[in-house]
Amino acid sequence: MFSNYKPTWMVDAIYQITPLQLKKMGIKAVLTDLDNTLIAWNNPDGTQELLNWILEMKNAGIPVVVVSNNKSSRVKRAIQQFELDYVARALKPFARGIRSAQKKLNLSNDEVVMVGDQIMTDIRGANRAGIRSILVKPIVDTDGWNTQINRFFERKIMRSLVKKHPEMKWRGGLE
Asked: pLDDT for 31-86, tens place per residue?
């Protein structure tokens, strides 16, 4: 019933995804949500751990593109210090923003992955775009008011998915 919301992988945090793991899966680029995936929604400055992860990806030749439903000024301000490309107002769960980022990279569906903390936007959008997805745990337990509504429904969807797919478990990486 909720198979459109099923992630390909479930990883504790984006920082546990390594270039080696991605390359083993044939993935050449990472599309990622912003709030509660890369940075805490209420702390737009990020962390040293995030900076280290981005540098690790860049050094491995794996581009990271932020795909966010936020307005451009918010995304730009949050990621300017990281020098990442982005697509704002992505309209996830629709595939438009994800496809736009993929087009910038000129990569096939098998060569990109979408990482996000919400199954109703990030994972559903990835599935609509026909690309693999990685669900990560939110960086902080609090959310903006609009995301709190999604979280209520996500809990119900996740219970149903885990019951139907017992292999869905949180892991420390893609392997």
From this structure: 999 988 998 866 667 788 889 999 999 999 999 999 999 999 989 988 888 889 99
Output phi, psi for 83, to 5 deg.
Answer: 55, 50
Supply the CATH number for residue 125's domain: 3.40.50.1000
- Region 138-166: mean pLDDT is 76
Q: Which two tokens stand for residue 139?
A: 């960086």
| Within-domain flag for 146 | yes
Total structural domains within the chain? 1
pLDDT digits (tens, 9 = 90+) for 100-138: 999 999 999 999 999 999 999 999 999 999 999 999 998
Q: In DSSP terms, which residues pair with 116 in a beta bridge?
A: 135
Residues 6 or more apart in contact with residue 114 via CB below 8 angstroms = 31, 32, 33, 67, 98, 122, 123, 125, 126, 129, 131, 132, 133, 134
Q: Phi and psi (nearest 5°) for 112?
A: -125, 160
Handedness of CA 156, 171, 112, 24 (dihedral sign): negative
Residue 142 counted as domain residue: yes
Residues in the chain: 175
Q: Is residue 172 part of a domain?
A: no
Please give the residue range of the domain that contains residue 22.
Answer: 3-164
